[in-house]
Design a protein that fits this description.
This is F-box domain-containing protein. It comes from Acorus calamus. InterPro entries: F-box-like_dom_sf, F-box_BR-signaling, F-box_dom, KIB1-4_b-propeller. By secondary structure, this protein is mostly beta strands. The chain has two domains: about 45 residues, no CATH class; about 290 residues, Neuraminidase (6 Propeller), CATH 2.120.10. It has four helices and 25 strands. The strands form six sheets. A five-stranded mixed beta sheet has the order 21-20-22-23-24, with no helix packed on it. α1 packs across α3. The protein is globular and about 70 Å long. The mean pLDDT is about 75.
Length: about 350
């Protein structure tokens, strides 16, 4: 009797997929047919196991221009091949849907797991340097907005576009010196460093409606502090990284939640048992509720281009090491990227 494997019950397929240990097996499972893929995605009702969503590290070799994905949970390198026409020089950011933004002569979104590419408007000639890219939704969403943090004429500016746009549009020139941006609930939050404020902007209405948030006193010396924005489970988070004097090395973190009613930042020691992954130009929050022994809640996993890396535990202020990563060659540049589902 011939069996139609595509007709297995969805709950059974989902149960099988949830028992897989490695992302590569999970991806192959979803690629068998449409019904198997549907079973593990299941609209918004399915939850992918944490060990299959846990961020990979996108590594680039300064000498050979080779790229690889490093799985901290497997402690394994997975070499990746980029399309021949792409020679990315820098990584600008990633999102929880697995896409990353890269730049060479062009700007584009790349899925490092499949090699798919979406080209963005070319960089403006006035861009001296592009630091970071963030986007508000999946790149297939017609309402998706992509924002760039750029250096121009000795100041940092923010530009944005939608997929299909021919050019980048500048944000308000009233911003003095921007050092970080993040999307939350379709609003773009901007750290205006020199003004000591965080500004929320609604870009979807064709306007840049601004909501100033009360400044944090004492965090304006960029030699001692660095401010990161992140999208938390219930609102924007402001992470203040304290640096050791004259050394680019993290000393401790402070975490603040936005009180939208009072328009002020409130310090917290809790991430709701979640984990915050903090890269040079990437911030990703994930729940640690899976019980995976390698994952610790209320913690900040951090890494940047200066090889300053580790785990900071908010509850007691102690540090831990990221599994096996400090054994990697120092010529690797490391950035965070979340696996995309099949």
């Amino acid at each position: 009797m011939e069996v139609d494997w595509s007709d297995l019950p969805e709950d059974m397929l989902y149960s099988i997929a949830m028992r897989m240990d490695h992302l590569s097996d999970y991806v192959r499972f979803g690629a068998v047919c449409k019904s198997w893929r549907s079973a593990i995605i299941g609209g918004n009702t399915r939850t992918t196991p944490l060990h299959l969503r846990f961020p990979f590290l996108l590594l680039s070799d300064n000498f050979t221009e080779d790229h690889a994905l490093y799985s901290p949970l497997e402690r394994k390198l997975h070499p990746i091949r980029l399309p021949n026409r792409l020679r990315p020089t820098r990584f600008l950011g990633s999102s929880s849907d697995g896409w990353v933004c890269m730049i060479d002569d062009n700007l584009y979104l790349l899925n490092p797991f499949s090699g798919a590419v979406v080209f963005l408007p070319p960089p403006r000639t006035s861009f001296d340097f592009v630091f970071k890219a963030v986007w508000s939704a999946a790149k297939t969403d017609p309402n998706c907005i992509i924002a760039l943090l750029c250096e121009m004429y000795d100041r940092n500016m923010v530009y944005y576009c939608r997929p299909g746009d021919a050019r980048w549009t500048a944000l308000s020139s009233s911003l003095e010196f921007v050092n970080d941006v993040v999307f939350f609930n379709e609003n773009l939050y901007v750290v205006d460093w020199e003004a000591g404020r965080v500004v929320a902007m609604d870009l979807h209405q064709g306007t840049t409606t601004m909501m100033a948030v009360e400044a944090l006193d004492g965090f304006l010396d960029w030699m001692d502090h660095y401010m990161h924005l992140a999208a938390g489970p219930s609102g924007p988070l402001l992470v203040v990284r304290h640096m050791k004097k004259n050394v680019f090395e993290t000393e401790r973190f402070e975490l603040f939640e936005l009180d939208g009613t009072l328009k002020k930042w409130v310090e917290t020691k809790s991430l709701d048992e979640g984990m915050l992954f903090l890269g040079w130009n990437t911030s990703i929050w994930l729940s640690s509720s899976s019980g995976l022994k390698e994952c610790k809640g209320n913690s900040i996993y951090f890494i940047d281009m200066n090889k300053d890396l580790g785990i900071f535990y908010l509850e007691d202020g102690s540090f831990g090491s990221i599994w096996g990563l400090d054994e990697k060659p120092l010529y690797y540049n490391c950035e965070l990227v979340v696996p995309i589902l099949p």
